[in-house]
Amino acid sequence: MIQDIGDALVQSWRNFASAFVMFVPRLVAATIIFAGGFVIALLVRRVVRRVLTLAHFDRLSLRMGASDMLRVAEMPTAEVLVAKIAFWIVWIGFIVSAVDTLQFTPFQGLVGEFYRFVPRFVLALLVLALGFLVGNFLWRATLLSSVNAGLPGARLLSGALRVLVIAIGAVMALEQLGLATTVALTAFAITFGALMLGLAIAFGLGGRDAAKELIEQQLRAKKAREADAAPHL
Amino acid sequence: MAVVESRTMASQNPADNESALSDALLRQLMAVGQVDVLVGLPTLNNAATIIDVVRAIHVCFTRDFPRLRTVLINADGGSTDGTPELVRAASVIDADVVQTSYTLRTLHRIVAPYHGLPGKHTALRTVFAAAELARASVIVVLDPGGPATSAERVTELIGPIAQSGVEFLAPRYRRHPRDGVLITQLVRPLTRALYGVGLDEPLGAEFACSGRFASHCLEQAIWNREAARIAIDFWLRMEAVVEGFPIGQIWRPLTAPAGARTTVREAVHQVVVSAIESLRAHDSYWLRTSGVAELCSWGVDPVAIPESPTWDYKALALQARHNLVEIRELLQTVLEPGLLAGLLDVSEGLNPTLNNELWVRIVYAFAAAARQGRAGVDHLADMFVPAYMWQAAAFMAQTARESPAAVQARLDSLCETFERLKPELVAAWSAGE
Fold first, then answer.
1. Which of B64, B42, B49 minimizes the C-alpha distance to B152?
2. Chain A interface, Cβ < 8 Å to B
3. Which of B249, B147, B152 is nearest to B197 (CA)?
4. B142: closest CA among B56, B205, B226, B55?
5. ipTM above 0.90, yes or no
6. Which of A144, A154, A229 is closest, CB to CB, to B379?
7. What's the pTM?
8. Residue in A136, A144, A220 to test binding to B, most B beta-carbons within 10 Å
9. B395 contacts in A (CB within 8 Å)?
């Protein structure tokens, strides 16, 4: 009996020792990957930031209005933000690799999942950034054109356009990530449809006379402005 | 006199100037051979005035330069009112012949509808390319709606280039100092302060130049660019200044401004875009230039000052005030907080006012913003429009009851402020590297 208990203990110890001997190298490897990944991610962050600075990314960000939006949201500057995103993508990649090295059963296949997710995530970020850029560009262009053309409600018109374009970009980014696709698309479709229908009804029925007056006003103003540069030249 | 129609093509390659001339035009020019004086007439629907201008040119050729080889080239932009036909048909009438001696040379007249990008720049490129091919030593470009309705007006443009070594001759007009606000409040003082040259009319439509200057311009990669399309006259002047061609001015009678077909917004937009393009292209010159060189002048100063212009500057002020508030958010990206606050403060006042320093700093802030890439040039120009409108209204309001001499003193003071504050722009521009 005692002999059996002893054998069991010895066997258990041997199993543990054997498993430990097999685990330690993986743990060491995972630790090295984790630490090395952190250093590499830091380097990537520094390089990305340096390249963006050299490429005058701040000017692009300023021109497209992204800098203003980041400032309002109390976020770092655009190049710092992009560098941080690059840092986390790289480091998370190494963390996932490190965890995979440990060969824990629940985390099997994590690396594959991660590498499938990263392109979608980067694409979603690009789509979102593009939405911001296009939205801000259109806002600026619409505001300037309509103000200089003397159109009423220039800020409302340009602001609505910006929100619409950014919202489209956000929905497309969510769709790319596969997050709440149905909810986001449905919410967007309902909101957009309701807004357009409401505007159509308001403008077509309620504001028909106002619309007519507005168009006539614009035509009159255009005629009045036709020769107005003469005294300036 | 044989009149042959030919067509010119806009070249995609700026250096390839011969392709700016069609085969037909090339043949005609080769038939003409080498000339001494080439008069270019860029036209677009100028039927009302073109006959008188063509007659004036021919009387000038026959009476004043009978020994010179001359050619008139009409570069037409697609007139629908029969302008090219009128140029072909225009003849020297008996009354003109009585005044003139007979020319010793053949009078050549070529009508060349140009193609490619529409605009005066394409017409000028055709004229310059033709001048280079014909080895013309004097080139005169006339405004078909302008003052060249007498031979004397054409002759006086040819003389200084042919005889005195000047290579670019710009017009100057005796205006009321309240006239031409865009010129007096922006273009002239900016040109004086930055390029160090006392050009009265940096946007004038007429000019005369040497064949060497025309050839130099043809070599520049400007002809297909936006700056050339919208303000070729400004670019030509700045090119002459920067490249060291001797420049002069000549008094010309004041005529209706060519900008009568454009709106204030369009005019300001074009001027700002071309000014920014020029600042970018020529910064190695103007960053190092100091002082102002006054230019030699030809012709007779009319002396008599025309009536003060009257237009509704109060309506312009109202529009400017509204627009400034509307685009306040955008102006924050261009103007320092203090400048923007100053502009918005004065725009809230009952009467439009704006002091010289604030105005000049606003102008320089826009130039620096272009350098720093804070916004696209088109957007910057659009943002500048309300600020200009306010300044124009303020100037007109402040000078409404002043004598011409007092108004002129204000203009001189503004020029001085532009010059005094230039180091601020130089610093901001250099920091934007």
1. B64
2. 56, 59-60, 62-63, 65, 68, 140-141, 143-145, 147-150, 154-155, 225-233
3. B249
4. B205
5. no
6. A144
7. 0.79
8. A144
9. none
Q: Which backbone phi and psi does B119 adopt, to 5 degrees?
A: 140, 165
Tell which phi-psi region holds residue B338, choosing left (phi > 0), alpha (psi between -120 and 50) or beta: alpha
Q: Burial, A138: exposed, middle or buried (Cβ in 10 Å; 0-12, 13-18, 19+)?
A: middle
What is the rounded distance in angstroms from the CA atom of residue B389 to the CA atom of residue B418? 18
- Shortest distance, CA A84 to any CA of chain B (angstroms): 24
* For testing contact with chain B, the best of A64, A158, A232 (most B CBs within 10 A): A232
Could you tell me if A86 and A104 are in contact, meaning their C-beta atoms sit under 8 angstroms apart? Answer: no
Residue in A with minimal Cα distance to B391: A232
At A85, the amino acid letter reads I
A154 contacts on B by Cβ (under 8 Å): 326
Taking the C-alpha atoms of residue A125 and residue A120, their distance in angstroms, rounded to an integer, is 9
Amino acid at B240: A
What is the nearest CA distance from B119 to chain A, expressed in angstroms? 18
Q: Report the amino acid identity of residue B387.
A: A
Retrieve residue B392's tokens: 């124009």
Q: Which residues of B touch A (CB under 8 A)?
A: 179-183, 203, 256-268, 309, 311, 319, 323, 326-327, 330, 332-333, 372-376, 379, 382-383, 385-386, 392
Write the DSSP assignment of A152-201 as a string of letters.
TTHHHHHHHHHHHHHHHHHHHHHHHHTSSHHHHHHHHHHHHHHHHHHHHH
The DSSP bridge pattern shows strands B108-113 and B168-173 to be: unpaired
> In chain A, which residues have their Cβ closer than 8 Å to the Cβ of B375?
62-63, 140
Per-residue pLDDT of chain B (433 residues; tens, 9 = 90+): 333 333 333 444 544 555 677 788 888 888 888 999 999 998 888 888 888 888 889 888 888 888 889 999 988 888 888 888 888 887 655 444 444 445 556 667 777 766 666 678 888 998 999 999 999 999 999 988 776 678 888 999 999 998 888 999 999 999 999 999 999 999 999 999 999 999 999 988 889 999 999 999 999 888 877 777 788 889 999 999 999 999 999 998 887 655 446 788 888 998 999 899 899 989 999 999 988 988 999 988 888 888 888 888 888 999 999 999 999 999 998 999 999 999 999 998 888 999 999 999 999 999 999 998 888 889 999 999 999 999 999 999 999 999 999 999 999 999 999 999 999 999 999 987 6
